[in-house]
């Protein structure tokens, strides 16, 4: 039977994506019925702009979680990158150089995480819990604890500008996801990420340089967090040491909602963007419905637990 | 010898059988245990010792036969029921909680003594432990943390725990495997204490000398069947070995006599000199191109450790590896692969397969990096190459994208061999490549091995099944306790001869 082979050849990863895409579509349908403003172009762009920073972080975190690790430091790395690049720009350094420096700082923070995880063999949770704290601390030290105002217009464009009436952060997010998709599917590095997360011992015995790939993964996550920091600083017109607090948890939530397994080896980048959209659409709709912000938190948390629960039930079915 | 009477009988298993998924793994097994005896359970790998122990201790329920315990028919519903009734098993992997004290471990699961306020009376607990340890002749501090003890001391803690719950039967699964000679003497002294106190001890060991030192009686199993039980004084090591292996080799597969003489004049494709690490004692051997060399050893003999050391998966403390006469420094698997060594690891699911990845990628994972242009993988070409290998090995699959976890064991094993082929190795290290797969897949794997040998690959073939080693190999190496004890050619290699070396009777 054609249909049977079709279904049997469909991996459950794809089913998971379809499942979450389905949830997203249902949510959008319901919200568009009860909220007339929901489907307005301006609102849709607003949602996309709102999720862009978290989504950029979540792309990096997807790589890390695919290897079976975790990165709790991305929110802090974002703040440090923002503070440093705004500070450099304020010193009169060319904005492009300043922005690139911020991204580099992010990559460096990730490199340290990766080295400790891969070479020193510390647990990723502990390593990045540590950097969550000390990287944030560095952001405070460097900024003196106060937001640093951003003067450069070019820099502001990265976060608040538009091109063809579409906000720049949305373009950046799209490019990040297209590149990530490409890397995961069409490069040896991407396949190694899946292999290491699926079975590290087998990957090692197959001649994959496990440590080198792990270091690269954490560096990439740091780099994307740095990029997120630039975008957020541009949007806020300032480098703030308090920026992005708790973003790491939103990013991880998006990855998990997107069907990536916390044990590694299973998941996709397109799942993560769907996960980020589900969270973004939910908080947008709740805001449009004038739901109290505190209650929004409650609803978001419940949705995450429900999604994981559904995932568990579905796996038991198999 | 003590007198064997019905009063002294503790446990009798009669005609016990067990099936798994339609396969009879145990049938017609009898075992009688008497007060104050050490009973050696003997048999090759896979003879059914573990299954028997698991039935004895309530992990499995028998399909046939009866168990009588203390003159009553019993049927354990769980391991904890068997344990509470007095049957304790000490596994090779110790079952202790490492970060708490000796006393807590000994009395774990029992009610701790309490003070008048209802808190734990530590003084009393430690005192109880001290008395117990003393009565067993064990010199251990009850307040010591278990993880700070040596393996031998930890084993004593476990033995003390078994004694504290008033065990009548104590099963020890290879208790001496990780002990030094001195520790073994101490252990045997303790076992003798237990004998005096009237326990029955079931003792499993692959070391023949120990059996004759400590056991009173023995039971021999072979291929899941009961062969014989007898007092140890009525037998000797050669007879025991003969009973363990049987007389007729099972020849369910084709035995091919191969002519390897043309390769013998050449330099060996793999030469190992004095390889040593924690588990290996100065191992030296060589394999010529086109040769299939069997490696036999009982579990724990170091055969897996040997191939892992050659492959760079475990560190080595000394020794040299030569490939076609060139010395190679191999510090990790990648270096082994580039030197031309391929490994099919012992445990295909844990060390070999990417279960959640496609058949295609499982086959091609090591080869893929050669099939990219400017850093971009050429999936079309990867798929075509994968199909080639899959056809060569006749792997049954529904789609290249199918996850490898949905394949049968035989097809999974073939995937690993296909991956090996893609690396173009000069030397193959096959660690139990036929374990747990059906006869048809086995035959296909044998013919693949022959084909590769014909093409000039040198093969090291590990198997727990002696007839298989005998049938497949041109030459057979035998290991015991991390050392190579014999190198036998086809004429010298009989089951009996191999087993004498594998159990350390001949050195």
Automatic annotation (TrEMBL), chain A:
GO terms for cellular component: plasma membrane. GO terms for molecular function: transmembrane transporter activity. Pfam families: BPD_transp_2. The chain crosses the membrane at residues 15-35, 47-66, 96-116, 122-142, 163-184, 215-237, 249-282. Keywords: Cell membrane, Membrane, Transmembrane, Transmembrane helix. It comes from the Bacteria. It is found in: Cell membrane. It is a multi-pass membrane protein. InterPro entries: ABC_transp_permease. This is Ribose transport system permease protein. It comes from Thermoflavimicrobium dichotomicum.
From TrEMBL, chain B:
InterPro entries: AAA+_ATPase, ABC_carbohydrate_import_ATPase, ABC_transporter-like_ATP-bd, ABC_transporter-like_CS, P-loop_NTPase. Keywords: ATP-binding, Cell membrane, Membrane, Nucleotide-binding, Repeat, Sugar transport, Translocase, Transport. GO terms for molecular function: ATP binding; ATP hydrolysis activity. Pfam families: ABC_tran. Residues 11-248, 255-506 form the ABC transporter domain. PANTHER family: CARBOHYDRATE TRANSPORT ATP-BINDING PROTEIN MG119-RELATED, D-ALLOSE IMPORT ATP-BINDING PROTEIN ALSA-RELATED. This is Ribose transport system ATP-binding protein. It comes from Thermoflavimicrobium dichotomicum.
């Amino acid at each position: 039977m054609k249909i049977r082979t079709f279904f049997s050849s469909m991996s459950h990863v794809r089913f998971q994506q379809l499942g979450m895409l389905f949830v997203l579509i249902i949510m959008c349908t319901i919200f568009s019925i009860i909220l007339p403003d929901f489907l307005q172009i301006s609102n849709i762009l607003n949602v996309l702009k709102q999720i862009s920073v978290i989504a950029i972080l979540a792309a990096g975190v997807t790589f890390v979680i695919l290897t079976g690790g975790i990165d709790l430091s991305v929110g802090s790395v974002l703040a440090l990158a923002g503070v440093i690049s705004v500070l450099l720009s304020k010193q009169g350094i060319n904005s492009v150089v300043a922005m690139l420096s911020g991204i580099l700082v992010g990559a460096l923070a990730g490199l340290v995480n990766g080295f400790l995880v891969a070479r020193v063999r510390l647990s990723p949770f502990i390593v990045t819990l540590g950097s969550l704290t000390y990287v944030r601390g560095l952001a405070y030290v460097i900024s003196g604890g106060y937001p640093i105002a951003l003067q450069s217009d070019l820099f502001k464009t990265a976060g608040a500008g538009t091109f063809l009436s579409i906000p720049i952060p949305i373009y950046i997010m799209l490019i990040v996801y297209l590149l990530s998709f490409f890397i995961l599917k069409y490069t040896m590095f991407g396949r190694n990420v899946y292999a290491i997360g699926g079975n590290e011992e087998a990957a090692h015995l197959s001649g994959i340089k496990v440590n080198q790939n792990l270091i690269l993964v954490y560096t990439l996550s740091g780099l994307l967090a740095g990029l997120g920091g630039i975008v957020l600083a541009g949007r806020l017109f300032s480098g703030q040491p308090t920026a992005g607090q708790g973003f790491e948890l939103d990013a991880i939530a998006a990855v998990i909602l997107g069907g990536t397994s916390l044990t590694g080896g299973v998941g996709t980048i397109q799942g993560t963007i769907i996960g980020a959209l589900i969270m973004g659409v939910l908080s947008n709709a709740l805001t449009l419905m004038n739901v109290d912000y505190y209650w929004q938190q409650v609803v978001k948390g419940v949705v995450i637990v429900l999604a994981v629960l559904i995932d568990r039930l579905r796996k038991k079915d198999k | 010898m003590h007198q064997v009477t019905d009063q002294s009988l503790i446990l009798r298993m009669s005609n016990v059988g067990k099936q798994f998924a339609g396969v009879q793994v145990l049938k017609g097994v009898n075992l009688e245990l008497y007060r104050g005896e050490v009973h050696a359970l003997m048999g090759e790998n896979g003879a059914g010792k573990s299954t028997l122990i698991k039935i004895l201790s309530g992990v499995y329920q028998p399909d046939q036969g009866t168990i009588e315990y203390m003159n009553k028919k019993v049927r354990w519903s769980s391991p904890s029921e068997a344990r509470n009734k007095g049957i304790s098993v000490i596994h090779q992997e110790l079952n202790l909680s490492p970060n708490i004290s000796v006393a807590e471990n000994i009395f774990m699961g029992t009610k701790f003594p309490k003070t008048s306020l209802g808190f734990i009376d530590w003084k009393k607990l430690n005192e109880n432990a001290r008395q117990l340890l003393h009565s067993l002749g064990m010199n251990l501090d009850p307040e010591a943390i278990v993880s700070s003890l040596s393996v031998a001391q930890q084993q004593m803690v476990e033995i003390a725990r078994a004694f504290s719950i008033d065990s009548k039967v104590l099963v020890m699964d290879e208790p001496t495997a990780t002990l030094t000679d001195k520790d073994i003497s101490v252990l045997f002294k303790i076992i003798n204490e237990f004998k005096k106190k009237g326990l029955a001890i079931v003792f499993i060991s692959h070391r023949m000398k120990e059996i004759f030192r400590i056991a009173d009686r023995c039971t021999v199993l072979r291929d899941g069947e009961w062969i014989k039980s007898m007092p140890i004084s009525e037998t000797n090591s050669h007879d025991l070995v003969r009973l363990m292996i049987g007389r007729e080799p099972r020849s369910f597969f084709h035995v091919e006599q191969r002519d390897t003489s043309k390769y013998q004049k050449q330099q060996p494709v793999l030469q190992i000199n004095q390889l040593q690490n924690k588990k290996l004692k100065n191992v030296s051997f060589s394999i010529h191109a086109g040769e299939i060399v069997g490696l036999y050893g009982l579990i724990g003999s170091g055969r897996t450790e040997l191939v892992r050391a050659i492959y760079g998966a475990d560190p080595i403390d000394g020794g040299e590896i030569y490939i076609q006469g060139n010395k190679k420094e191999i510090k990790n698997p990648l270096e082994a692969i580039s030197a031309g060594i391929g490994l099919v690891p012992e445990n295909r699911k844990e060390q070999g397969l990417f279960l959640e990845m496609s058949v295609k990628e499982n086959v091609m994972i090591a080869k893929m990096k050669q099939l990219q242009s400017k850093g971009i993988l050429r999936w079309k070409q990867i798929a075509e190459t994968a199909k080639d290998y899959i056809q060569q090995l006749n792997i049954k699959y529904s789609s290249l994208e199918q996850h490898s976890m949905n394949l049968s064991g035989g097809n999974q094993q073939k995937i690993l061999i296909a991956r090996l082929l893609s690396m173009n190795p000069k030397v193959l290290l096959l660690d139990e490549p036929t374990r747990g797969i059906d006869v048809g897949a086995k035959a296909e794997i044998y013919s693949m091995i022959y084909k590769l040998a014909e093409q000039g690959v040198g093969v090291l073939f590990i198997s727990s099944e002696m007839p298989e080693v005998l049938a497949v190999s041109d030459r057979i190496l035998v290991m015991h306790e991390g050392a190579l004890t014999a190198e036998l050619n086809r004429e010298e290699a009989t089951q009996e001869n191999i087993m004498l070396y594998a159990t350390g009777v001949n050195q």
